[in-house]
Design goal:
8 helices; three-stranded antiparallel beta sheet; 10 strands; about 260 residues; about 30% helix; about 25% strand; single chain; alpha/beta
């Protein structure tokens, strides 16, 4: 829409450049074609597992931050293996609803019932801002070693996920501020999947990734969730991404506010 020129980079080198309309509509290089073809709208259809037993049942939820009312009398069910996308404009309560369903925030009214198997650690959140999800003064290696020690599994379980998401093992020797936001988003995903959760609340979990890496990351996420029968509650502004990854979509409409 802006016109001008476009440069496409890979591994710190420019692989293609030229007029925006030409490069974006008729890319010549293989990587340019892969990058532009990785938009969610171009993904192959994804097979969704059949939803299983009811994990979370919420009735009559309401939440306000006076004078703003986010939602009222909201009913939400989430089943094992189900993938639900939350679509709405910014500020309408998507993140708050997910937090309420996970018990991270309290609703003003309403009730939530959880299945017995949703025990400690079985519900995980992928934060929109991955930087705040890691202790700033601990190396990433220390953070993962502490996680493995706390939950009693082998630290080597981290390595296959790093390879799958194209993250070098030596990256773990850095502090969170010394890696990119996109790398932290993938590391946060690995940390959540290591715990084999039953519910994952993913708040725009690939917002800092390029289309190719986003596609690979979602493939990993959905395959792991399918194997574990884990439910996914996904917050996104991308309708194509929601269509490709979710069984169904919940849309939150802005409420009319007083005055």
């Amino acid at each position: 829409q802006l016109g001008g020129r476009v440069l496409i980079m890979r591994d710190s080198e420019i692989v293609e450049q030229g007029d925006a309309q030409r490069v974006l509509n008729q890319p010549r290089e293989a990587y340019s074609q892969e990058l532009l073809g990785a938009d969610p709208a171009a993904w192959d259809d994804i097979e969704h597992p059949a939803p299983g037993e009811l994990l979370i049942s919420a009735r009559g939820l309401a939440k306000s931050f006076p004078p703003l009312t986010l939602f009222t009398d909201l009913h939400v069910d989430l089943h094992a293996g189900e993938r639900v996308a939350l679509l709405a404009p910014s500020g309408t309560g998507k993140t708050t609803l997910g937090n309420v369903l996970l018990g991270l925030q309290s609703a003003d009214s309403g009730s939530i019932r959880y299945a017995p198997q949703l025990k400690y650690g079985s519900m995980q959140k992928l934060y929109q801002d991955p930087v705040t999800a890691f202790a700033p003064r601990l190396t990433l290696r220390q953070a993962f070693e502490d996680l493995c020690r706390r939950h009693r599994f082998d630290f080597e379980a981290v390595r296959p996920f790093l390879e799958r998401l194209r993250l070098p093992f030596l990256l773990l020797d850095r502090l969170p501020a010394q890696v990119s936001g996109g790398e932290l988003q993938r590391l946060a995903l690995i940390r959540a999947l290591l715990l084999k959760p039953k519910v994952v609340f993913a708040d725009e979990p690939t917002s800092r990734l390029d289309p190719v890496t986003q596609k690979d990351t979602f493939r990993c996420l959905l395959e792991e969730l399918k194997a574990a029968g884990c439910a996914l509650l996904l917050v996104t502004h991308d309708k194509a991404l929601a269509t490709k990854t979710a069984h169904r979509t919940l849309t939150l409409a802005p409420l009319a506010q007083p005055g």
